[in-house]
Specification:
The protein is α+β, with helices and mostly antiparallel strands and about 270 residues long. It has seven helices and 19 strands. One of its GO terms (cellular component) is nucleus.
Amino acid sequence: MNYRVDVHTCGKEMVKSLEDASYPDELPEFFKVYMAALWSERLRIPPAFIENFGRKIPRNVMLGTSSNLFWMVHINKINDDLFFEEGWPEFVQENSLAHGEFLTFSYAGDSKFYVKIFATNGCRKNVASHRINKKESFNLCEGNEASRPGNSYSIEAPRGNLHGKALAVRKSGGKCPSFEMVMTKSYIHKGLLNIPSHFNTYLKTSDFGERIATLQHKDKSWRVVVATSSNRNRFARGWTKFVNDNSLKNGNICNFILIERNDLVFKVTLSR
């Protein structure tokens, strides 16, 4: 299959391919042993890891887990240290982090982290998918980013009212529904991309009709038609331009994160 599915319905081979797609190898990463007294409100990013961001530190990052959910978290600078702060307490609560659990943070670029959580028994943990109602709307999941100069590096900040956006993210827990697709020759050359049926609940489409979606990747945007037929949705007109402009090839993985539900704005991250 070409999209992420519930691992409980799959055999070992499917689980392995799913994890390979979700957690690419050889990404810069760091780990933390979760200590509730220290890290429940904010989490310090190791100073040695900061160079992996380059000279522009993203103000907003997405923390993705194996439950296929993402949390919007703000990076704040306190003295010379950087912390995951606004949005982090929700991540802690909704993943039921407990004292002594082990977390790894792999940075995939484009302001996106993959997070693996290990319980104190040494086994992988996945609780968020069972605790969160995925049909909720998250319209203010992420703002646009711009940079401002600093001494040794700069921190990217969203345009507009940061405080208002932070409150909106805090209210929703920073979660954004998403789906992931492995590119095939058909998706690349036929001008259509099928959207998984489990994602229909977020699209507000009629049985037959069209809506305009915006795909954002890095600092560019593309307008793409979402065509609906017999309760089936797909990216249609405009999809070929997105494919060509981003040089998508067979086997590339596209992760579509719905950051504005009402206007159908997707943040797209690519793994090649």
